[in-house]
Amino acid sequence: MRPSYLVSVYQGEAALDENCATDKRFRKLKSHEISNLRSFCEEITSFGCNSADLDGYFVGYSIPQIGKEFDLLRFGNDNIINIELKSEFNETKIVKQMKKNYYYLKFLSRPVRIFCFVDNNGFYEYDITSDSITKIQTDVIAQCIKNQFVDYSTDPDKEFLPSKYLISPFNSTDKFINGEYFLTNAQQKIKDEIKAELGNTPFTYFCLSANAGTGKTLLIYDIAKEMISNGLTPLIIHCGNLNLGHNLLKVKYDWNIYPIKDVDEKFVDTCLDNCSVLFVDEAQRIRDSQLEIILKKSIENEIPIIFSYDKKQFLHKNEGKDIAEYLRGKYPEVRLSEKHLSSNVRTNNKIASFINNLFKPGSCYSNLDYDCITIEYFKNLDDMKNYVNFLRKNNWTPITYTTFKSNSDPYEYLADICPINAHNVIGQEFPKVVSFIDNHFYYGENGELEAEDGYYSAKGMLYQIVTRAVEELKIIVFNNWNLYHRLLEIKFAETK
């Protein structure tokens, strides 16, 4: 990706606007944005800016996977300049946008200056310390642009990594409570829809289905946080064991969060009477009997429920429930609103692509540069254990399989390698994850990855483990040469 010369941009966009208005393939700007950009260029040119000062801008740049857009970005060796272009002055909206811009730009490790140009009004600069804007003279921004040493080598796609903006209610709990994050456009859209529908029809069942890495957990916890700030009393049922983040929200911030194991008729009668909205997270794992208890009380008290789930995330053969399908079949009288969050934000695209090809080779032909994936092989168990201990000391998170103690389990020897298992990490994410595959895994006749199960689904647990990775994923293959060779073929596949 290369930066542009602003005069060429607005003249080219104007030509497209005049001659092929219906063809949106090449368009970056709308008609009023073209006019704003022209006015901006004419204004700074009148204050001494020349051709060099009009070059080096990324116009209408949008952060991949997140959707945050900037009107003008210019990267320098000394700083980053961001300029937003407006037709009308609205201080509240401008401050809100510029604060959001600063949030994303501050992670790039360069000083940031954020300006806004309002056509026929002038320039404003954002001050992060006071979260306000101040009107400035044109010569201030003109001098700032002229003094910048433009870095033409910067590729914003390599600077704006989703992992830099990852905020988890569990792994970054204090930042979450303090609002040090923003929702993606896709998340915000669903949040606004749920709020509007709850306002119109309070007794509604919402089914939010989403794949791993889309930020569904952050979304529902953000909705719950806003409800709490508005004086409501949401209650969250997590269909798994509570993690450290859950317990911090419960103890330090007095949230009503309970593990699914607590749910029985006594719990429902006691805890749901004062509940404004019920959230059921990882709902694909809930048992039918527990779901029926909840639904009965919900209908009795007309308590709306927001179910969040991913059918692919299952750890036992009886899990993977499609909640929407269940509700349509058994409770057609209750209003059902289905939402789907598909845009991946947590996991980088390379890891997501590799995971697709791990479970079904050849299913994904994009993002095949797997530099963030490493494949290791061991034949000796003690050597593997020594290596895992080394990785744990170097900021890797090894995650192993959950076993059922009362039965003989084929993965029991792997369960002893590290203290964290698939059930411990539900809803969490980690920068660098280590996973394990042994000789119980193989590719079946249909070409997909298969595995011998213990009490829990080995394939389901592996999917849970590898989708926890944000920046890097390491797969350790133990004593399974054929599968090791197949994974190397996947990692080094040529881009088609």
Automatic annotation (TrEMBL):
InterPro entries listed in its UniProt record: P-loop_NTPase, SLFN_3-like_DNA/RNA_helicase
Span of domain Schlafen group 3-like DNA/RNA helicase: 211-389
SUPFAM superfamilies, sorted: P-loop containing nucleoside triphosphate hydrolases
Pfam families in the record: SLFN-g3_helicase
Protein name per UniProt: Schlafen group 3-like DNA/RNA helicase domain-containing protein
